């Protein structure tokens, strides 16, 4: 089915000038960018976005990293967009990311793993509304 998913290019990948390289991978895979926004998240925003991880041992480090510089946030739309984006990103822990994936090529650590992607269609809807409360553009073809 045609789905939407939220994608974040994390501060370490932005700092490496890899925004274009990463967005190209999504487009080459047939995912269309239907919304995009660059911002430097506040501690409050990052804590709210990752609220499900509050209390976990990596939470403080994750929030510190995600607020360390600007991120590029986009909504990707296409056939099986949630799973397709996760395939393109590779495993969350870059030590387990397959060769040729975004995390294999651009991650520096488990926390600095270059990209975030929604893990399911229902969480995608919540994450998209978090960054794009005004909605996204209609898909073009
Ligand atoms: P992300 O997809 O952004 O979702 C939560 C993030 O927490 C994850 O990618 C990792 O960058 C980070 N993280 C750091 N340590 C862990 C861990 N042990 N388990 C899961 N996520 C972790």
UniProtKB/TrEMBL annotation:
A GO cellular component entry from the record: cytoplasm
Entries under SMART domains matching the protein: NDK
Keyword Metal-binding assigned: yes
Pfam families: NDK (PF00334)
GO BP field: CTP biosynthetic process; GTP biosynthetic process; UTP biosynthetic process
A GO molecular function held by the record: nucleoside diphosphate kinase activity
PROSITE patterns to which the protein is assigned, alphabetical: NDPK_LIKE
Cofactor section: Mg(2+)
Reactions catalysed according to its record: a 2'-deoxyribonucleoside 5'-diphosphate + ATP = a 2'-deoxyribonucleoside 5'-triphosphate + ADP; a ribonucleoside 5'-diphosphate + ATP = a ribonucleoside 5'-triphosphate + ADP
UniProt keywords, alphabetically: ATP-binding, Cytoplasm, Kinase, Magnesium, Metal-binding, Nucleotide metabolism, Nucleotide-binding, Phosphoprotein, Transferase
Origin: domain of life: Bacteria
Binding site for ATP: 10, 58, 86, 92, 103, 113
Gene3D superfamilies associated with the record: Nucleoside diphosphate kinase-like domain
Main location: cytoplasm
Entry annotation: catalytic residues: 116 (pros-phosphohistidine intermediate)
Nucleoside diphosphate kinase-like domain mapped to chain residues: 2-138
Function: Major role in the synthesis of nucleoside triphosphates other than ATP. The ATP gamma phosphate is transferred to the NDP beta phosphate via a ping-pong mechanism, using a phosphorylated active-site intermediate.
Subunit description: Homotetramer.
Protein name (database record): Nucleoside diphosphate kinase
Organism of this sequence: Thiocapsa roseopersicina
Gene behind the chain: ndk
